[in-house]
Design a protein that fits this description.
globular; 12 strands; 23S rRNA pseudouridine955/2504/2580 synthase; PsdUridine_synth_RsuA/RluA; single chain; alpha+beta; 10-stranded mixed beta sheet; two-stranded antiparallel ribbon
Length: 240
């Protein structure tokens, strides 16, 4: 899958650039041998000065900010540090949930292998996420997630604590979603196996709000990528 960096830019000024990161692409180069590049590598080909200001999990799509110079990088890094950047994610979760400004404040500890996290009240680092229900479907919910802190897998583990694991996130108890579970009349071709509606964790970084160099606040929205859009479309069509 060849990605043209210009095509994924959703905001650019003289100091910052925000892209709509495609799913299945790492933010930074992975430590292991070359596993198919990264957004950072594409960014550096476009402009060697670009530095990633934060990161998204490989499977997660959406708004990812880069700085074009050291002053801009410091400016944004300080906002992240002081929790002045608002990140809004959309997730499709298993089950029906009525969340209205629900805050989960549970400390997170990375597991030894570094690939997952758990809630640990004694050793974990503080972590907080706020959740709002956007739309309820038959057996599923579209949720807005606003992480206050920025821990690894924070949204995923916090949703799992609410018994609302993200669709197709087996690591934290999320089940895949099949069209046959939404559609009353569903015929599968003989000898074929039904594929899930989304082949990854159903999480998308919907928008990013921060202050640019002149102090003006901006909010950059990232449209749903194709797989997430198809999922929400099918839910709207058959799951209401």
């Amino acid at each position: 899958m060849k990605i043209n960096f210009k095509d994924i830019i959703i905001f650019e000024d003289e100091d910052f650039l925000v892209v709509n990161k495609p799913p299945h692409l790492a933010t930074l180069d992975e430590r292991t041998a070359d596993r198919g590049g990264s957004v950072l590598r594409l960014a550096k080909e476009y402009n060697p000065e670009l530095q990633a200001a934060h990161r998204l999990d490989k499977e997660t799509s959406g708004a990812l900010a880069f700085a074009k110079n050291p002053a801009a990088y410091r400016h944004l890094a300080m906002q992240f540090e002081h929790r002045e950047v608002t990140k809004r994610y959309h997730a499709v979760v298993n089950g029906i949930h009525d969340l209205e400004g629900v805050s989960v404040y549970l400390p997170i500890l990375p597991l030894k292998n570094g690939t997952a996290v758990k809630i640990d009240r004694a050793e974990g680092k503080e972590a907080e996420t706020i959740f709002n229900t956007l739309q309820v479907y038959r057996g599923y919910t579209l949720v807005e997630c606003i992480p206050i802190t920025g821990r690894m897998h924070q949204i995923r583990v916090h949703l799992s604590c609410l018994k609302a694991p993200i669709v197709n996130d087996p690591q934290y108890g999320g089940e895949p979603i099949f069209l046959s579970s939404l559609k009353r009349k569903f015929n599968l071709k003989k000898d074929t196996e039904e594929q899930p509606l989304i082949q990854r964790v159903a999480l998308h970084a919907r928008s990013l709000s921060f202050a640019v160099m002149n102090g003006e606040d901006i909010r950059v929205e990232a449209p749903y990528p194709k797989d997430f859009e198809v999922l929400v479309k099918q839910l709207n069509k058959f799951g209401v």
